[in-house]
Design goal:
Blueprint lengths: L5 E6 L5 H10 L4 E6 L11 H17 L2 E6 L2 H14 L5 E2 L5 H6 L5 E6 L1 H5 L1 H10 L4 E6 L3 H5 L7 H11 L8 E4 L8 H8 L4 E2 L2 H14 L11 E6 L4 H12 L3
Parallel strand pairs: 1-2, 1-3, 2-9, 3-4, 5-6, 5-7, 7-8
Helix pairs in contact: 1-10, 2-3, 8-9
């Protein structure tokens, strides 16, 4: 597989843009194509078999267009599809994202850790194995934030409905947890709003770790772009309108 291929990054919608940004920082010479499946968002309330089917179709399209590697920038899709896709495409580096429970448990204060995620992410075996491995010395509080990713998908982090949902899910834990793990790639866009409700505690997400792992895999496979190549980002969406693509670009540039 040629080093001049692009890195395909996909999510159920806009959330994976929070993963794309550290990827671009870590790998400035790579060409990235980001696909948001906004027409089918959110994935978090779908059956795992449907998530696998949607993910498989996206990966097929990206590979057909010249992707040399795939980043699944969605916790739910990683849990539901990554293992199967790796078996189907053994020669393609496929990197997933997972809730950043490991760094949260390794922090000095880790007695009580709150994990925000979709119901699907929390229910699938991948998260349960992650919790069994890293959560043994901590009390892990799982909070399924139903409806939150769907609101963030609208592209306005200041929506009052977002605040209302955060109060519903998190207010009871204010002052009672050491940290919060953002177990959905949509949630980093509302860091400020989360802290307003739960308090000024460390927030952990999987972006930086995913970026480092992507660099490691590309290096290992001899697929790193040459330093002379100019990096780029192209946005695609299953809602293929100029307005939707402008939303993706705006969120990519948004300070959070």
């Amino acid at each position: 597989m040629a080093t001049d291929g692009f890195v395909g990054v996909f999510d159920s919608g806009v959330g994976g843009i929070s993963i794309l940004r550290p990827l671009v920082r870590e790998l400035p010479h790579e060409r990235f194509v980001y696909f948001g499946d906004s027409a089918n968002a959110p994935y978090g309330d779908k059956d795992p078999s449907e998530v696998l089917s949607l993910s498989r179709h996206i990966v097929q399209e990206l590979l057909a267009d010249g992707a040399k590697a795939i980043v699944i920038a969605c916790n739910t899709a990683t849990s539901a599809a990554a293992q199967t896709l790796r078996a189907e495409y053994p020669d393609v580096p496929i990197i997933g994202v997972e809730p950043a429970l490991k760094p949260a448990t390794l922090a000095p204060h880790h007695h009580r850790i709150l994990v925000m995620a979709t119901a699907a992410t929390l229910s699938l075996d991948k998260f349960q194995r992650l919790e069994d491995r890293w959560g043994s010395d901590s009390e892990v509080i799982e909070v399924a934030c139903v409806g939150l990713a769907e609101l963030i998908e609208k592209g306005d982090p200041s929506l009052p409905q977002i605040h209302e949902l955060l109060v519903k899910y998190l207010a009871q834990w204010r002052g009672k947890v050491d940290s919060v793990v953002l177990g959905c790639t949509h949630y980093p866009f509302i860091r400020k709003q989360i802290r307003e409700v739960v308090g000024d505690v460390p927030l952990y997400d999987g972006g930086e770790g995913t970026a480092r792992e992507t660099r490691r895999r590309l290096t290992e496979e001899g697929l790193l772009a040459p330093a002379a190549q100019e990096g780029s980002v192209e946005f695609r969406s299953s809602i293929n309108t100029p307005e939707e693509l402008k939303l993706y670009e705006r969120l990519f540039d948004l300070e959070v």
